Amino acid sequence: MPVQDVLVLRTAKSTNPDGYDMTVEQARAMQPAEFERTFGLGLKSLDDVPAVQPGVLLERAPKGCPYYVRHCAPPKNPGPKDRKEPAFDLVVKAPQRALPEAGGGIAVPPRIIRLKAKDADGARLEALVFLARKQGRTRRATDWPIGAIQALLVADVLRRYKAECLSAPPDGVEEANSTRRTYTQSIDAFCRALPELEVGDVNDALVARYLACPVRRSETSKLTDLYTVRRSLKVGLGLFGVPPTYNCHFRIPDKGMLPKTPWTPDEYDRLRKAADGWVFNPDGTPKMIPGPQGPVQMRRADDWTWSGREAWRRAIPFKAYLATRHGRLPITRWVPPEVEPKGRKLPKHDRPWMEVTDHGIYYHRDGEVHHDGNKRRGANKVPVEFEPEVRAWYEADLERGCEWVFHKRDGSPYTGRKLCRETFDNIVKDAGIDPDRIPHHLKDLAVEWSDEAGMDRDTLAAHADTTARTLGRTYGDPRREALKEKAARQMSQGPWRERGERKANVTRLFKEAAGRRAANAETAAPLPFRRRRSADS
């Protein structure tokens, strides 16, 4: 039976994330200090819980206790609808308040709560767990048995990770980095597909189960979800207090190189010209229109789309040279974060900016967030070949007083946070290039440039703030299709057969020489016998 056809069914109730799912035997096995730390009511064991046993005069509660457990015997002559078994109640005499971190309000007002337990010890434990949960107490997983950790729902762990690691900043400012949104989408998709998955069921078969789920996401996106869930699950278990030695790892198959069409030098040049407004045919030739003195190349009018094209005219080489991971560049600025640019109020966490110095130009990216831990969070230096062009931008904007790198033609900032994707699609269309290209493919162009220049992948990975493995797996080899065509043209049996013929010819020559030596030995006259001279002679 295929792995994806196996449905794991839970045989027991999943563990509550607060850690108070325990049996009477586990509660009896606790040390007094651990028992008091777990329930926080000044109790050393279950025997210290105030209770009224059957037969006590008028079933009076112990004096001075804010709550107690009361035994309720069944009626002596029960009717058809009367209770026929003993029961237990939790009687709250004084209001029980919640912990300060849980609000500090009244958690349980004075009232009577019917318990489900059928014995005295079970009733005491149920009453303590009820009060602890109402007060907002939680129990760290370091005190849990291994079975309780394995019975945790993966969805509960991921929800806590989202609440503590992916929530918006306290002041409500949205970070420039969109990684939080990507992580949230992957976690939500996984929880919708496998809402009943437990931590103990996480193994290598999880990959096949998730890929077989009817989730409206591509296989590449599903593999990305699994990478996100694997990292988030490890961090989320740590938030519960699970020791880091607990193994919750599953192998994810390498998705390999993504099928991408490599950029050619002609396409890159046409893309930059199209950002200036020039229009090309799909075959790469300029699109001509009638002019006053003959056909001239078509150029877009100076309309509302020009403002976006002006910014993309700078962004296209910027992305290719710096190999930035931003799919669409944020509205970068020339001034540091401590300075408020004119014309727009920025959040205090907005970071992307260019620093121009005498010895180099640096692009300070974002990434100072918890879930972006695989980045080095360093500045990216502009390559020497691209530096004169960036300095020309800086001097032109400095003369105009424009504090934005990617701005409209009049120097005013954009209303959004990133460059318009629709404008880039129009530029690709005007350049006569396949419309499936996206801005992030310009990073593949940077990989191609580095390969052609003889740069090793580790050097490029340090420049792009990533790893060499990620460059090869996620972005792929930009020249893969070209290398396939080259291999198809050059693959031939000729050199192999020539080498075999040379080896056979050498063998034949040696055999012929050996035959001649043998024939000469048979026909030649015997040599005369010569007596060996002695030492005396």
From TrEMBL:
Annotated Gene3D superfamilies: Intergrase catalytic core
Region Disordered, annotated ranges: 512-537
Positions with biased composition (Low complexity): 516-525
Keywords on record: DNA recombination
SUPFAM superfamilies the record matches: DNA breaking-rejoining enzymes
Classification via InterPro entries: DNA_brk_join_enz, Integrase-like_cat_sf
Designated name of the protein: Integrase
Organism field: Bradyrhizobium ottawaense
